[in-house]
UniProtKB/TrEMBL annotation, chain A:
Residues 1-38 form the F-box domain. Pfam families: F-box, FBA_1. It comes from the Eukaryota. InterPro entries: F-box-assoc_dom_typ1, F-box-assoc_interact_dom, F-box-like_dom_sf, F-box_dom, SCF_F-box_component. PANTHER family: BNACNNG10540D PROTEIN, F-BOX DOMAIN-CONTAINING PROTEIN. It comes from Erythranthe guttata (Yellow monkey flower). This is F-box domain-containing protein.
TrEMBL record, chain B:
One of its GO terms (biological process) is protein ubiquitination. Pfam families: Skp1, Skp1_POZ. Keywords: Ubl conjugation pathway. Belongs to the SKP1 family. One of its GO terms (cellular component) is cytoplasm. This is SKP1-like protein. It comes from the Eukaryota. InterPro entries: SKP1, SKP1-like, SKP1-like_dim_sf, SKP1/BTB/POZ_sf, Skp1_comp_dimer, Skp1_comp_POZ. GO terms for molecular function: cullin family protein binding. Pathway: Protein modification; protein ubiquitination. Part of a SCF (SKP1-cullin-F-box) protein ligase complex.
Length: 376, 163
């Protein structure tokens, strides 16, 4: 119908307001079909969520940047969002983002009585807390999380719990980890058995092609270890390994970070001289296809962080004294965006990309059940 | 009529209030509905367009002539469309979206619905109900609950004094 075609072109804020027009508009706007075509139609602007924590990692400031779709990268407007959670969760870490949803966690390697995981839709300004996980060992442990939306329909969170081996001086983590998966269709955590993971993973993840990826390592002997990538398919719920090139497999894992780069995924290696090597895996799961694309060095200032690759291939950096900087690998020119200039006093800053303003997630974020207050 | 090259074929279109319009076939076939009629050979005499009134049809023909005079340059076409729609009020746009749908002109349809969305974006719920002729079927309690739930979306809404 013609009305639907017009509604498809409205921004999220107006759409949510117009759910109050009449019942049939509400059911149109909150329908799964409408939401997913709105999600794929949103081609005018992209949104970036800039998240800043203070030095204690407390979620401090959220800026929503509108980025014009045309290259080169440029910010057309920015606005501040309020931190939406006032119910007792303080220490936030961003697990990942997908389909316009962000997954946040307050779980660290510190022993907490309970760990809270929250899914948040900044555009719709709704959030929900997941039920408490089941695997909470008495012993010291370390947790890695993965987040994705399966087939654009179900939220999934995977939780890997590694227990410390406190024997003597050996503070290694025990493998395999204990694993549980949350899926929002069943609304509960479910334990995975028969897991044969031998890698110990870092808690930074990259969600790509329906698969969560973490950098991990495996000891070879008392002094050396081998880096690799652990992959978890969130639909089939199976683990696999994606091999790194030899040059990266033997690197200090603290210098590596896994990221999605355009249509591929890759690893950024940062060395003591403040240079960043950008590697991509051109053909997924083909070890030989790893290629070093370029190196970013001798920039205007010290690179504090490389956190995102834009669709156009430009890299988004945080540079000391300059704040947010965009680096174009073709011209090798940095561009200072003039946003959050005094960033370097902040300890952490993370950037998350959304392809468009989405109404996700249908079930628990915006659907009838939410309107009816089921998850409030 | 304004075409100067060769001997352009001219079609005669008739609105539902019996106004007659002459338009170059090359411009008129932007409408898939008209193009099909031409291809089927039933465009010899007067083409009746039963769902479009004269005022709207005049506007659509202005658009057909304007856009077909522009060579294949998407940027220029887009800026023509923007300019063409810039001074149209909601009622005119609503008539045009119906006409574009009936005439099967997807480029006009897209542009007009985007324009309507742009006009609506900051409007109130009451404005939308009036303009779209929609009856409010919420009870006052239900409506208040929906509005309370998404309070932030009611910030920055324009007051309803214009169209």
């Amino acid at each position: 119908e013609l009305q639907i075609q017009i509604l498809q072109k409205l921004p999220v804020k107006s759409l949510i307001r117009f759910t109050a027009v009449c019942k049939s508009w509400r059911s149109i706007i909150t329908s799964t079909d409408f939401i997913s075509s709105h999600l794929s139609n949103g081609k005018n602007d992209s949104l970036l969520l800039l998240i800043r924590g203070d030095r204690h990692n407390i979620l401090d400031q959220l800026s929503l940047l509108k980025v014009a779709e045309n290259v080169p990268f440029d910010v057309s407007s920015s606005s501040q969002l309020e931190v939406p959670f006032d119910d007792g969760i303080e220490y936030y870490k961003i697990v990942g983002s997908c389909d316009g949803l962000l997954c946040l966690s307050d779980e660290t390697s510190r022993k907490l009585e309970h760990s809270h995981i929250t899914i948040w839709n900044p555009c719709v300004r709704n959030h929900l807390h997941l039920p408490l996980p089941n695997i909470n060992p008495e012993e010291d442990h370390s947790v890695a999380l993965g987040f994705g939306v399966a087939s654009h329909a179900y939220i999934k969170v995977v939780r890997l719990v590694y227990i410390y081996n406190n024997l003597g001086d050996d503070f290694r983590l025990i493998v395999p980890p204990q694993v549980e998966v949350f899926s929002d269709d069943k609304w509960r955590w479910r334990r995975l058995t028969g897991v044969s993971v031998t890698l110990t993973v870092m808690d930074w993840q990259a969600f790509f092609n329906g698969v969560v990826h973490w950098l991990g390592f495996e000891p070879i002997d008392a002094y050396n270890s081998r880096n690799s990538i652990l992959a978890f398919d969130i639909v089939d719920e199976v683990f696999s390994e994606v091999m790194l090139p030899d040059e990266l497999a033997s690197e200090d894992i603290a210098h590596l970070r896994i990221l999605v780069i355009g249509e591929s995924f890759g690893v950024v290696k940062h060395d003591r001289d403040d240079a960043y090597d950008v590697w991509v895996m051109k053909e997924y799961c083909v070890k030989e296809s790893w290629t070093k694309l370029y190196t970013i060095d001798h920039l205007i200032g010290k690179i504090e962080n490389l956190f995102k690759f834009w669709k156009s291939g430009e890299a988004l950096l945080e540079v000391k004294g300059y704040g947010l900087v965009v680096y174009n690998p073709e011209t090798k020119m940095p561009k200072v965006l003039g946003i959050n200039g005094g960033l370097s006093r902040w300890n952490s800053l993370e950037l998350h990309l959304r392809h468009c303003e989405s109404l996700k997630h249908r079930r628990s974020f915006f659907g009838e059940e939410y309107v009816a207050g089921k998850h409030r | 009529m304004a075409a100067e090259t060769g001997t352009p074929t001219t079609l005669t279109l008739k609105s539902n209030d019996d106004e007659l319009f002459s338009v170059a076939e090359s411009a008129a076939i932007l409408s898939v509905t008209i193009r099909n009629m031409v291809e089927d050979g039933c465009a010899g005499g007067v083409i009746p367009l039963d769902n479009v009134d004269g005022k709207t049809l005049a506007s659509v023909i202005t658009y057909m002539n304007g856009i077909s005079a522009i060579p294949a340059d998407e940027e220029k076409k887009k800026s023509y469309r923007d300019k063409f729609l810039s001074d149209k009020d909601f009622e005119t746009l609503a008539d045009m979206v119906l006409a574009a749908n009936y005439l099967n002109m997807s480029c006009l349809m897209d542009a007009v619905s985007a324009k309507i969305a742009q006009v609506m974006e900051k409007k109130s719920v009451g404005w939308v109900r009036r303009k779209f002729g929609i009856e409010n079927d919420y009870t006052p309690e239900e409506e208040a609950a929906v509005k309370e739930e998404h309070k932030w979306t009611f910030e920055g809404v324009e007051t309803d004094d214009d169209n």
